[in-house]
Amino acid sequence: MTVTDWQTIEAPDEGCANRFPLSVAGACDEGFVVRFHSGLFAYINRCPHNGSPLDWVPERFFSEDGELLVCQTHGALFAPGSGACLAGPCPRGLSVLPLREEGGRLYVPAGIDNPTG
């Protein structure tokens, strides 16, 4: 994966997520960042099973107990810290996106080429 541009977003609170616009190989898409056990993790907002966004309700990605990411279409479960598929019809994990924190700001990709799962 090659990041073609970066953008800043607000970091989410613990157990929450923030979505952001993302260009994937020139096509409009979306990414999201979660804060889980004090760590920040970013993914493309697409279920590897059928390509649907994980959240039906905007920015609601976590299971009721706050321990897993849930695809709201078919209930696939993913590890928040790695994106690994833990259960459900997902053939692989979520596509991980790089992120960085500098000077109190959170930077996420605005565009990527060659995404991988």
The gist of it:
By secondary structure, this protein is mainly β.
Characterise the protein shown here.
The structure is a single chain. The protein has strands at 2-9, 17-24, 27-36, 39-44, 69-70, 77-78, 85-87, 96-97, 100-102, 105-113. The chain is mainly β and 117 residues long. The chain has a single domain, classed as Rieske [2Fe-2S] iron-sulphur domain (Rieske Iron-sulfur Protein). Strands 1, 2, 3, 4, 8, 9 and 10 form a 7-stranded mixed beta sheet that branches. Strands 5-6-7 form a 3-stranded antiparallel beta sheet, with no helix packed on it. A hairpin with a 2-residue loop joins strand 3 and strand 4 (39-44). It is globular and about 35 Å long. The termini are close together. The relative contact order is 0.28. The model has no long low-confidence stretch (mean pLDDT 93).
